[in-house]
Specification:
Elements (H helix, E strand, L loop, with lengths): L2 H13 L1 H18 L12 H27 L6 H10 L1 H21 L1 H10 L3 H8 L3 H11 L3 H27 L3 H31 L1
């Protein structure tokens, strides 16, 4: 993927108030539920709330974001109703895909860390396959594997994840080191929201380019 498509994918969420607002709202919800329990803190009773919110809300948010992102990239009109309709129709597939990818990646992590990361990267485009091409869960996983079959393809996705999540971690550690109260909380939500927007925008661009 060249710099042109990358710049365009990064710019679109910033220019579309619906995409930006949706990303920030979702980040705010996740930040709030994460205060109950971190997604990795399975011994905390609040973990059920965190995971429930992630699994149940995430598919609809992704449906809204990805369908509108695709429309923006293809310069077509899109409405929130369209995204909700698409997300509602494919909701069970999106939830099934979320669970399947989480289980497969976790299984890989139990063997060694690297297999889990590799599996996660290879399956990272399943949402696009479900929403854009109407794939079943199994079909979406296969489609994602096809789109990431070469090292260069999943290597680019790895770089995207590393840059976005690495940047978020650095900022989070900085906020923790220098307590900033409400301002620090707001900064973390904004950073997380932008990370969500740019990650999904870039993955969508990758999927559409490979499908062309």
């Amino acid at each position: 993927m060249t710099s042109g498509p990358i710049n365009r994918a990064v710019a679109v969420p910033l220019k579309d108030p619906v995409l930006l607002g949706l990303s920030l709202a979702f980040a705010g919800i996740l930040y709030a539920v994460n205060q109950q329990a971190n997604i990795y803190d399975i011994h905390n009773h609040g973990w059920v709330i965190t995971m429930g919110a992630l699994i149940l809300i995430s598919p609809l948010v992704h449906a809204l974001f990805l369908t509108r992102m695709r429309a923006d990239l293809e310069q077509r009109p899109s409405t929130v109703t369209t995204g909700l309709t698409t997300g509602g129709a494919l909701y069970t597939r999106l939830v099934g895909g979320e669970i399947a990818v989480s289980v497969l990646a976790a299984a890989g992590m139990l063997l060694f860390v690297l297999p889990g990361i590799y599996i996660g990267l290879r399956l990272s485009l399943y949402k696009q396959a479900i929403l854009f091409d109407g794939r079943t869960v199994a079909g979406a996983l296969r489609e994602s594997m096809v789109h990431t079959r070469y090292p260069r393809q999943w290597g680019i996705i790895l770089l995207i994840y590393a840059l976005i999540y690495g940047g978020e971690l650095i900022i989070a550690y900085g906020v923790e080191a220098v307590p900033a109260g409400v301002f620090g909380d707001a900064l973390l939500v904004v950073v997380s929201g932008l990370g969500f927007a740019w990650l999904n925008a870039l993955l969508t661009m990758i999927y559409l380019q490979h499908s062309a």
